[in-house]
Structures are given as structure tokens and as C-alpha cells.
# Entry
Amino acid sequence: MGPRVEYAGEAQHTPAVSTRPYNGDAFLRTTLFCDAAHPEIGRVAETLRRTTERDSAVAVFGYVRDAIAYEVGNWQRTASETLRRGRGTCTNAANVMVALLRSLGIPAGYGVMTVNGREYFGPAIPRRLCNRASERSRHFYVCVWIDDRWVRCDPSDDAAISLASQHVNPQCTLIEWDGYDDALLRLDPAHIVEDLHPLADIDALMAKPMRTAMRLPVHIGNYFIGFLREHGQSLADAEDCQFRFEKWLARTHPVLFLAYRMLPASVG
# Structure
């Protein structure tokens, strides 16, 4: 979940897509957050180098998708810091992938979607958590320059969380990428307000802190993600998911459950 975005006027519900051509060094550059020149980024990147740029990019995608376990929360971390932690937000995963690709000399940038933050996570996410999100949030993915065109992919959701929950939450469907076609999360188009790509630098966005009001929902949200990893495959549907999560939270973290129950179940 990204920083809050404010809009003047009526939101455009048809994605406005930018398809700028590759314009040189901007998409190979090291930045404060995309620290592609960091030694650890370089070391990992070299283990993923393949014969062609496409094969290298696909290897990087697969590595990042599963090596960076999905979580919600603080995105204010460099690519090398996220790599060390082994977990991160959609922003962090995209940033690691871009840094690894740039380290290999493959031009890469970011896609930035403005989304309905209360809906785009999917139907299985408890309303008490989603309702605390901004109506307009940002979701990040990756753009890779291959064969004179931009190809888009999204390494946000690791295979473990996808395979455990995709049957109750379509937005978590496992994403595979072949390096030829776009491979993005299965978001409901109605929840996408704007889709801009490619951007060479998102440091200014990554520098913005998470809103204080989101700290408790984010903390509980990561327990929910842990619950999905452990119990997701046994869930019948989205309603069963939310019901069983509340029972699990009450049993395993009773104090946190009381805090969770104080969050509003509806907006307004």
C-alpha cells in the first residue's frame, strides 16, 4: 500500500496509460532507494545472469517474487535493505527487481497505479482493515525494456501467499512471467483510477512516510497475511476467510483482537 494521493475533481476510472519510449541512462541509474550499485545487489544480480537479457529478466522476476515475502507497511527502505530483510511491500519488491535489472545493465523502471485502496486488495481482506486505507492509494510494479519495447510485470505476491489464497481472493492469483507479455496482478479494472508507466525514479514517493492512522491496521494486516500463509488452503471462500481469521486472532493474540474489534466495520 503506497502513500496517500489527493485528487482535484472527479476521478477518471479508465486507466490513463503513459507509454513513453526508452530514453537512455535514466532507466539504468542508481538512486537513493534504488541502490543498484550496492555490492549485495550486484552479487545477487550476477547469480541471476543468463545468456539473454530476456532470460536474465525472467530469472530476476522469479527470484524477487519469491525471495521477498509480501507484507504491508513501511516502504521507506532501499533495495539492498529489502533484499537483506527478505520481505517487503509491493513498492519494495518492485524496487528490488528494478535495482537487480539495472545492475545487470537491463533498462528497467516502475509502473505506478492509483487504486481504490479500500477495494483493490480483494474480497477476502477484512473490512475493518481495508476501511482504514485511503480511497486513493498507489500500487507499484515493474517495467522492463526488452526487444525495443516496455514489458510490464508485477513481483508483489510471492508464490506461497498466492497459492495459499488465490482460491478465495482472485487478486492474489499466482503471477508467472515469460518476458514476452505483460504479467500484472489480477486487479479489478474498476478499482484502478490511473496507470502511469514507465517512471525512471520513484524516490520521492518512497520517501513519504506511512500515515500514523495506518499503523494499527498494517500491524494486524501482517498477522492476517501470516494467517493466510498458514491456513489459506483450508478456507472455503472469502466469508469463511474473514470469520476464521477473527477466531484465530482472538485465540492467538487476544489483546490485538480487542484492538482490531475497535476498528470500524464500515465506512462513514
